[in-house]
């Protein structure tokens, strides 16, 4: 992993993006006689073509973490709609910006660049899955957290393949890992790391105050050139989560991040206004049609105002398209949304699935009550309960809530305390590492969530 503006990005994913950007640029330049009448201004249209195509592939999930483990057939199925979307966007740009002479790429350009991108992905993904690039881990600890690190290392959450070569048991841990994967506890850690060619040691021990915690041996490993990482850093780096169950207050205090500078606040506010204004302009016909459909369905109010908790626990009224019956909470008690919730109307089912019900919240952004990207605001009734049941839950209120966020693009719709805990771990990562770069990535992922209706309920 490499870190760009506080956010962890896979080296392979970053290399793939740069490689494909160069391939698309070269394809556009090579085929310029087929689609550009004025080749004296060649490089601006070619660069526009490359950026639009990368954006199109990004919005359809082709740079997400699990793509390196996909079959080539799945890659082909994603490339085709990505290039169709890019084709449409390039023709739209040619109409909107005729002064820039962007031109309208023909089918031959897309066939050439599509074939080159497919070949590049085949080579990169084959190399990424090679055992030569496999990262070998030794995990110190054999408890529940060690088992979760094993599951993360074996999952398809990242571009880089991991292999856990074994666990070093520590006294006082309740064993939760396969006994066959235990390594000899009587050998020094540095000896084990060299014997098993470990690239990294991950420490999952929660109680570090007893004499069983191998502080001196871990120091020897670090001095011997074997990187040592604690579980919290491992999850933050590989899963974009700050795990509550392995979190120490000192990690938040001394771990960096939490940028609240004037520059960051100004950049974020400009991004909020520009992104919200653009969405309002583009989605105006959809919003008008939605309002009409809600009114026709049951004659009730189009909009729904609901009290939510914002930054520093301040209350505000969030504005949404009404997606439930008018008597959804006739007993006056807030309820979690359910799968196939009977309170949701027919129109509401679709606008929730496609996240159209969230569009009126642009007004909350313009008023400064919300950001475009941030933790989703929750109702005060649930916040009071969650703050009591989940440690560090209140940290998410350190910044403005958002219309979309990292938890919304990485996790399903939340409808329980357990879901709130899982989403909090993404929210904590965002609060700690938020930047314009991360906002843009979340915005691109949000387009995919809307297009495929992921997470709606």
TrEMBL record:
Pfam families: Bac_transf (PF02397). Its main location: membrane. The chain crosses the membrane at residues 12-36, 42-63, 75-97, 109-128, 270-294. Keywords: Membrane, Transferase, Transmembrane, Transmembrane helix. Residues 268-451 form the Bacterial sugar transferase domain. It is found in: Membrane. InterPro entries: Bact_transf (IPR003362), EPS_sugar_tfrase (IPR017475), Sugar_tfrase_EpsB_2 (IPR017464). It is a multi-pass membrane protein. PANTHER family: COLANIC BIOSYNTHESIS UDP-GLUCOSE LIPID CARRIER TRANSFERASE, UNDECAPRENYL-PHOSPHATE N-ACETYLGALACTOSAMINYL 1-PHOSPHATE TRANSFERASE-RELATED. This is TIGR03013 family PEP-CTERM/XrtA system glycosyltransferase. It comes from Duganella lactea. The lineage of its organism: Bacteria, Pseudomonadati, Pseudomonadota, Betaproteobacteria, Burkholderiales.
């Amino acid at each position: 992993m490499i870190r760009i503006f506080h956010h962890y990005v896979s080296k392979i994913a970053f290399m793939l993006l740069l490689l494909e950007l160069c391939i698309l640029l070269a394809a556009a330049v090579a085929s310029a006689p087929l689609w550009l009448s004025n080749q004296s201004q060649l490089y601006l249209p070619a660069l526009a073509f490359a950026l639009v195509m990368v954006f199109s592939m990004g919005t359809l999930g082709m740079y997400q973490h699990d793509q390196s483990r996909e079959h080539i057939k799945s890659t082909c199925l994603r490339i085709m709609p990505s290039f169709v979307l890019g084709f449409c966007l390039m023709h739209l740009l040619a109409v909107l910006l005729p002064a820039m002479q962007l031109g309208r790429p023909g089918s031959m350009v897309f066939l050439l660049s599509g074939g080159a991108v497919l070949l590049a992905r085949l080579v990169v993904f084959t190399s990424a899955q090679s055992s030569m690039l496999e990262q070998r881990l030794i995990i110190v600890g054999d408890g529940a957290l060690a088992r979760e690190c094993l599951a993360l290392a074996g999952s398809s959450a990242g571009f880089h393949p991991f292999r856990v070569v074994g666990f070093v048991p520590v006294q006082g841990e309740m064993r939760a890992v396969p006994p066959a994967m235990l390594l000899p506890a009587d050998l020094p850690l540095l000896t084990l790391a060299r014997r098993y060619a470990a690239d990294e040691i991950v420490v999952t021990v929660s109680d570090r105050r007893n004499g069983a915690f191998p502080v001196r041996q871990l120091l020897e490993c670090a001095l011997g050139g074997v990187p040592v990482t604690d579980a919290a850093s491992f999850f933050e780096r590989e899963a974009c989560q700050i795990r509550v169950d392995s979190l120490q207050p000192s990690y938040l205090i001394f771990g960096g991040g939490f940028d609240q500078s004037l520059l960051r606040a100004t950049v974020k506010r400009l991004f909020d206004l520009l992104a919200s204004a653009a969405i309002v302009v583009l989605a105006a016909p959809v919003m008008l049609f939605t309002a009409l459909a809600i009114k026709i369905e049951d004659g009730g109010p189009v909009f729904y105002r609901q009290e939510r908790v914002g930054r520093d626990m301040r209350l505000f009224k969030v504005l949404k398209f009404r997606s439930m019956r008018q008597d959804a909470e006739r007993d006056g008690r807030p309820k979690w949304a359910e799968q196939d919730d009977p309170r949701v109307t027919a129109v509401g089912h679709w606008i929730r699935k496609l996240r159209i019900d969230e569009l009126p919240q642009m007004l909350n952004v313009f008023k400064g009550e919300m950001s475009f990207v941030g933790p989703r605001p929750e109702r005060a009734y649930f916040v009071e309960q969650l703050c009591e049941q989940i440690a560090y839950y209140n940290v998410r209120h350190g910044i403005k809530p958002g219309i979309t966020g990292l938890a919304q693009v990485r996790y399903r719709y939340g409808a329980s305390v357990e879901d709130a805990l899982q989403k909090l771990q993404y929210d904590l990562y965002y609060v700690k590492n938020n930047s314009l770069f991360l906002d843009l990535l979340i915005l691109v992922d949000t387009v995919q969530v809307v297009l495929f209706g992921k997470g709606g309920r």
